[in-house]
Amino acid sequence: MAGLFHPDAAWYTPGRSVVAGEALGREAVFARFAECLRVTGGTFRVSLKEVLQSSDGRVAAIHHDHAERNGKRLNAGCCTVFDFEDGLILEGMEHFHDLHTWDEFWS
Question: For residues 94 and 78, is the Cβ–Cβ distance under 8 A?
């Protein structure tokens, strides 16, 4: 994945969960992804539904996130908007259909 992300990449996740907030720098972004896998025992998965590109070069990925954790099941709709620089992901900003459900899963 290092070949996809800019060294100065940033990832933004809304909410109040343990995975919410800013991850600044490629290594911090990867650490965030690893944390999602760790706390779900490796069950966290993203099912891509559609990819859209705007005229300014932004890309929106519409997907569902699935995971299991502490007897809970996650099935959350999400749209992640990506900005690019030099052909690499510079920023990813998540937008959840139901942020309350997302936060509840991670609590």
Answer: yes
CATH number of the domain to which 36 belongs: 3.10.450.50
Amino acid of residue 13: T
Domain extent for 10: 5-106
Residues of the chain with pLDDT under 70: none
pLDDT given for residue 106 in this prediction: 92
Residues 6+ apart with CB under 8 A from 44: 36, 37, 65, 66, 67, 74
Domain count of the fold of the chain: 1
Cα–Cα distances (Å) from 103 to 27, 63, 90, in that order, read 24, 17, 25
Per residue in 55-68, pLDDT (tens digit) is 999 999 999 999 99
**Phi then psi dihedrals of residue 98, to 5 deg:** -135, 90
pTM, rounded to two decimals: 0.92
